[in-house]
Amino acid sequence: MPDQLHADQLHAAQPHAAPPADPGPRVAQPPSDPPPRIDLADPAFWELPAERRAAAFRRLRALPGPVHFTERPQGPLRGERGFHALVRHADVLAASRDPRVFRSAPGVTTPAPARWVRLLFGDSMVNLDDPRHAQLRRIVARSFTPRLLARAEADINATAARLVDRVIAERPADFVPAVAAQLPFQVICAMMGIPEQRRALILRQIDRASAHAGVHRSLGARIRLPGQGLRALGRMQLLVAELGRERRRRPAEDLISALVAADLDGRGLTGRELGAFFSLLLVAGVETTRNALAHGLHLLTVHPEQRALMLADPERHLDGAVDEILRHATPIIQFRRTLAADHQLGATRLARGEQVLLCYGSANRDEAVFPDPEAFDITRHPNPHLAFGGGGPHFCLGAHLARQEMKALYRELFARLPDIRATAAPEITPSSFDHRVRSLPFTFTPPERD
Ligand code: HEM
């Protein structure tokens, strides 16, 4: 096989790309969709129906090595870049666990944040490498003290119960804003010590800041990030800096106080570092958990036998259900890495400076690891999904918290509203970056006396 597989070779081999040598007699064929043209660098690919994208990834996984795709950014980002798509479980794992070669700087998201955005707002640790990354992560990890986490657990349960009270009282139509977005947001705000009256403003900024992640078709869409998103980030930054100053004066038992008091080369986090960390926690922790929660309600609706199994013995099956939802939904579709050195990955030679996409969604459907990968099976065991990353130094810091939130909410919802269900498929925002649910209509029979 060649050292590297390029998308052009892949397209040449696709049945609809080449005319048949001898069309033969015309026989009516049953209508069937041609296999999709696979180009992970083309925004149109990410707008294909989920089944067609899944079929494309199946094809990619069956190839002898990762395929290289070329990006052709327009406008101010002109030029050609590209990436090798790591679509198999083993390859995503290998790259995640070898951070000396597979670096997170200059950035893991697509498109990369502009340099001036990073300069102005500070880099968050997800885009940094060791030793700087390790230093920041240590501070944050140390701030997640057992006391803070125990309080968070009590807070998660109480927030889940309050949300269900509100759902029963107000009977909202859309699960996403009313429930799925609320729980992770309220939990993180409480952990950080953000006063209730400032939370609505922050939620609006998160929506704006994250509205344009992923691959975008037009130059206009790219330009909106530095506009709307930047203003939103800026407002959040100011608010956080102000809270940081308050907590330096009057420390409390919360994450902001721990972060401003942390010892980083003999000093605490600066306002800019604090802001970058805040944005990371809010965007990374709220969007992802919100999408997982919404996908979960839909999956448990369209798989009634799995739902019945879970409800028959929640203590036994809730952990399995949550992990299977995470595998099946894979809230973060991919992150990027940049090679710090030439590297041999299986039979493929990767060169220093090249980039790879860690395709978590595809790894989570890898038939070499997950028998019958399209099936939703809450008893799947083992379930070594990569929804929180492939291990290594950047493994999701909030994995435990996210699982706790999912379990608390489903426990409360299904105990009090046992027939709660989605009434339509989730409305998905097409994105190459996250598996974002815009809305999910739902219904339930209100309890007679709750
Ligand atoms: C279902 C929910 C979640 C999913 C699917 C998810 C997924 C991920 C993934 C894939 C990564 C990158 C891992 C890597 O590069 O190896 C990550 C990193 C991260 N996540 Fe999560 N996450 C979730 C919830 C949370 C929550 C609730 C928080 C915050 C409390 C959080 C905070 C972070 C942070 C801070 C990082 C960066 C870690 C680092 O760079 O060292 N995440 N997450």
Detail the topology: elements first, then pairings:
Elements: E1 5-6, H1 7-12, H2 50-62, E2 67-71, E3 81-86, H3 89-96, E4 102-103, H4 115-121, H5 132-143, H6 146-170, H7 175-180, H8 182-192, H9 196-210, H10 219-249, H11 255-261, H12 271-302, H13 304-312, H14 314-329, E5 334-339, E6 343-345, E7 348-350, E8 355-359, H15 360-363, H16 399-416, E9 421-422, E10 427-428, E11 437-439, E12 442-443
Parallel strand pairs: 1-2, 3-8
Antiparallel strand pairs: 2-3, 4-5, 5-8, 6-7, 9-12, 10-11
Helix pairs in contact: 6-8, 6-16, 8-12, 9-10, 10-11, 10-12, 12-14, 12-16, 13-14, 14-16
The chain binds protoporphyrin IX containing FE.
General description of the model:
The chain has helices at 7-12, 50-62, 89-96, 115-121, 132-143, 146-170, 175-180, 182-192, 196-210, 219-249, 255-261, 271-302, 304-312, 314-329, 360-363, 399-416, and strands spanning 5-6, 67-71, 81-86, 102-103, 334-339, 343-345, 348-350, 355-359, 421-422, 427-428, 437-439, 442-443. By secondary structure, the chain is an alpha+beta fold. The protein has one domain (38-436): Cytochrome p450 (Orthogonal Bundle), CATH 1.10.630. The strands form 4 sheets. The chain has a 6-stranded mixed beta sheet with strand order 1-2-3-8-5-4. The protein has a two-stranded antiparallel sheet with strand order 6-7. The protein has a two-stranded antiparallel sheet with strand order 9-12. β10 and β11 (437-439) form a beta hairpin. The radius of gyration is 23 Å and the shape is globular. The N and C termini lie far apart (65 Å). It binds protoporphyrin IX containing FE (HEM).
